[in-house]
Structures are given as C-alpha cells and as structure tokens.
Amino acid sequence: MTVHFPFQNSYAALPANFFARVAPTPVAAPRLIKLNRPLAVQLGLDPDLLETPEGAEILAGKRLPEGADPIAMAYAGHQFGHFVPQLGDGRAILLGEIIDRDGVRRDIQLKGSGPTPFSRRGDGRAALGPVLREYIVSEAMFALDIPTTRSLAAVITGEHVIRETALPGAVLTRVAASHVRVGTFQFFAARGDTDGVRALADHVINRHYPDVAKADRPYHALLEGVVARQAELVARWLLVGFIHGVMNTDNTSISGETIDYGPCAFMDDYNPAQVYSSIDEMGRYAYGNQPRIALWNLTRLAECLLPLLSDDQEKAIEQAQFILGDFSEKFSAAYAAGLRRKVGLFTERDGDEALIESLLDAMAKNHADFTLTFRRLGDAALDASADENVRAQFMDPTAFDEWAKRWRDRLALEPQTPVERQSAMHAVNPAFIPRNHRVEAVIAAATNDDDYAPFEELLTVLAKPYDDQPQYAAYADPPLPDQRVLQTFCGT
Ligand code: AMP
Ligand code: MG
What we know:
The protein is an alpha+beta fold. Helices cover 42% and strands 13% of the residues.
C-alpha cells in the first residue's frame, strides 16, 4: 500500500517567477515523532499509512508522494522595518495542495526539508526544538479557536543541524489555507511587476475571498477583506496573551491565519510592553504594539495594490488610506467585545470600557497572571467565595477588592444567572495556554533525552484549553520564579 495524497495544485500553475521548482533533500534516517491523526483524516489522508516507514519518509522529504509538484515560493518582506527584496522559502518546500473534507484548499508544506534557491546562507534545515515549538503552539492556537496554520507531523531526520551546538534535525509538515504573505505581494511590487501583483491578487481572491470576486471593485474589496481579518486576528491574539514575536511582513498571512511560529510566546504576567524574542531588542513586536504593527504591515500591502486600485496614483492612495482607516475601528470593536466577554458582560453599557481598563491597569501594576486572573474571575462570578483565588494573582490583593465591588454592581445589571455567566466566561478564558516554561521543558526532554512523553502530555492538555481538566491542574500554573523563561529564540 502506498500513501495517496490527493493533490490538486494551483500555485504551481502560476507564472514561473512565482516560485522555484525544487525537491526536498533526502535525509539519513527519518523517524516519525508525531502524527496529527485527526488532521490527517480531515485532509483525506490515511493516518495508518502515514505512520508506516514509507509515510515517515514522505513526511521527512526523503520520498515524494505521487502528484507532488514541490516548489519553494518567492517572497520579499520588511524585517524589523527594513525591506529585503528577496526572501522566499529558504527552508520550506510546498509539496502541493489538497482539498480537505470541508472543501477548503490546504497547502501541505515541509519545513526544514533542505536548501532551496532562496536559502541564502542558511542550510535549509530546522532543529528539533523550533519544530516542536511550532507544533505545540500552532495546535494550541487551533484549540483556542484562533485562525492558524496547523501541524500535521513532526519527524526527526537522523541528521544533526549545526546551530550554536549540534542539534537533532527535524521536519515539520505544516498545513495552511495558503502560504501567500504580505511579502509575496511585495516581491512583485518591488520589481515593478504589476502583472505579477494582479495575478497574485486574482489567485488570492479566488482562494480566500471568493465573495470579493463579485464586488464592483474587487481589489478594493480584497484589501478590505485582508484588513478585516488581520484586525480580528490581532484582537484574538491580545485576548489570550499571545505575542507573535516576529511580525515581519513576510510573516503576515493574506488568509488571516497566524503563521510562522518562531520566538512566539504567551505571556504570564500581564504587561503590555512584554517582549520575549531575543532578536526584538527594540520591542517593536511587544504584546501591546501588535495592532499598530499589523496596520503598518497592511499599509505595505496597500502600497503593493495601488496600481490595481486606480490608474490615477493620487486617487489610489486616497482610496487605500480610506480602507486602512477601517483597521483601528475593526480592531477596537473586536478587542473591546472580547474583553467584555472575558469579564462576563454580555450587554453593553456606558462605563464598561473604563471598568475593564481599570482591571487591566491593576493587573499590570500588580503583576497579575493574565490567563489565571481571567479564568478564576469566572469562578468568582459564580461565587464570591472564589475571590481569594483571583486576589492571589495580585501583588496587592486589595487592588482586586476595590475593582470587584464595581464589577459586581455592574454584573447585577446583566440578565444571566451566575451559572450561565461562569460557563460563558470559561468558554472564552482558557485555563491552559502553552506556558513558556512547559514548552522549554518539552524541548529539553526531547532534545537531550529523546523523551517525547512530556510533548505528548502537553499536547493532550492543550487540546482542551477551556476545560478544567483537574488531573492536569499543574499545567495551569504560572512558572515558579526559577522556571521563568525570559527570552525565546527563533533558533533557525
Ligand atoms: P523566518 O524568520 O522564519 O520568518 O525566516 C526568514 C527568512 O529566512 C525566510 O526567507 C526563511 O526561509 C529564511 N530562513 C530561515 N531559516 C533558514 C534556514 N535554516 N535555511 C535557509 N533559510 C532560512
Ligand atoms: Mg517567515
């Protein structure tokens, strides 16, 4: 029996300058570490066959499945504000596309599968640590109901990659609605290739924004669509304490999925200025800067689309600015609505925003754990005797008492029963996030001891982030002082 991938490739049919045809480089001794069986089924793949040695060879790039048309995609991008006209898939290869069980076209991409014409000085490989991190965090985001690329499999290659030290090499199979980025548009725009920009825009409309095709001005509507999805996405990140870490334009997906998990992190203590990434020295991509940066990235996209918006450049700029002007309102509305749900307010009243703002202020001043404060607030909404657990998050617990009084006065005006309120709050306030110290512990066990039990257990817990799972209660705990992770690394 051979593994059958029902490929239906569309990107590889675009003009030749969109990509380079390149096959994965075979590796010594592939071993499957993890297969995402439910996702395999969703993609119409046979999980049992993927778990055979042949399956592992395919997932490691040692063997090409029938129908694959492997390509490395070309893109450019602003990295930390500086434009690089050519980046591209330097360590990733798109095997092809599959229409999943819901009729959605999905890219199947190997990450860490060897050099491509876009590798520059890189080796085209990935170390085990970053592969496990992306697997864990992307699947956690999916379970949190946040748009994201997904992880189908992780294999180790049986080869070492040289970073600061020699590390086990690994390949991640990533599944995405597509891998088109803001930087993909920039690649063509930077070359003055308006036909390329148009062909890409048409591909994207067809694939991600089919309703836009019927609009009077499809390219305007495309920009509106991307703006709307990014606004919603970044609001969702903030609502769970997620920090992407490298919001370069090449790491901003046009489909509105979270993509390219590098030195990403969930924050423990609430702090709008929080940064974990070791390479983000200026805090450009700090937690609270993310909405501003998303708009900056969208502005770069709008610049690429100008020639499609109007032949008159001044008009095009005016129209683009008008569309970009929607971002702040869309983001603020999504963020404010999400915050209201987090504190159990399901109707809108004057003063709600100020009430929530003062909770966030008190949390920041008192180093309250972002996730636990909201989770335990749900219990306090049911029964004030649970207040102690919320108070315990605050350095000065009286800071909560004062706020709690105002909060309860406001809750009295809500229609729900306390039981309804608690369950509605628990449905939006996760108990479990991929805590940095847990992720680091998983990576250390796998890398140093070839032990994947902690990885499996963490995945199990994170698959149900909104359930209490009392048997895994310790996974909800913030790090002890000596467990704190101060920095994360992209490790590429
Ligand atoms: P990232 O930081 O993952 O968004 O990657 C930025 C750029 O560097 C992309 O063009 C990647 O393909 C490239 N890159 C990152 N790591 C490697 C590597 N090990 N080998 C080749 N290219 C890489
Ligand atoms: Mg990237």
